[in-house]
Amino acid sequence: MNTTLEKVDFQVHIEFNDKKEAVFSYTENGKAVDGGGTVRAETAGTYTLTPVTVRLGFFFTGATITNKIGTCAQDFSYELSDNRQAITVTDTAKNSGTACLIFNVECNDKPYSSPDPQVINKDKN
User: Fold this and answer.
1) Which of 22, 29, 81, 103 gives 20 to 30 Å between its CA and that of 57?
2) How does residue 2 score in pLDDT terms, banded at 50, 70 and 90?
3) What's the rounded Cα separation, in Å, for the pair 72 and 99?
4) Residue 55: what are its φ and ψ, rounded to 5°?
5) CA 17 to chain centre
6) Is 0.85 surpassed by the pTM of this model?
7) Rounded to whole angstroms, how far apart are CA atoms 9 and 38?
8) How far apart are the first and last CA of the chain?
9) pLDDT class of 39 with cuts at 50, 70, 90
10) Number of H helices, E strands in the chain
């Protein structure tokens, strides 16, 4: 990774609700956040599963990134690391718009997808 990237670290907690649906929540520096945000410069967001989530058997399988407004989805890439317990999403922020960012995980051979923590790219000005 480029050292000029802005870096953001999120912790991802996943648990099952009464309907056996995977419920995703995010924290940054111990504070609850939605996992998305507004980006004005090249940014790398690392999303790491909490130890409790890993003990349940969850691991990342990838991310689905699509355009919601504009064409900024092409600015994104991702890389799995830490034995699939972390995913780093890099956004070059070259194009303005709003991207839909879905995390794909698996637990006990069953796939789950997160709700969309939207990422909005804005011009630097």
Assistant:
1) 29
2) very low
3) 6
4) -65, -30
5) 21
6) yes
7) 15
8) 25
9) confident
10) 1, 11
Q: What is the pLDDT of residues 40-95, one digit of tens each?
A: 789 999 999 999 999 999 999 999 999 999 999 999 999 999 999 999 999 998 99
Residues 117, 101: Cα–Cα separation, whole Å = 6
Contacts of 20 (CB under 8 A, 6+ apart): none
- Cβ atoms 35, 117 nearer than 8 A: yes
What is the CB neighbour count within 10 angstroms for residue 123? Answer: 8
Instruction: Enter the tokens of residue 27.
Output: 């924290």
- Give the span between the Cα atoms of 81 and 98, in whole angstroms: 26
Q: In the numeric block, which tokens belong to residue 70?
A: 């504009």
> Bridge partners of 37?
119
The percent of residues in the chain predicted with pLDDT above 90, rounded, is 69
Q: 24-34 burial, b for 16+ CB within 10 Å, e for fewer?
A: bbbeeeeeeee
Quote the CA–CA distance of 85 and 3 in Å, as a whole number. 23
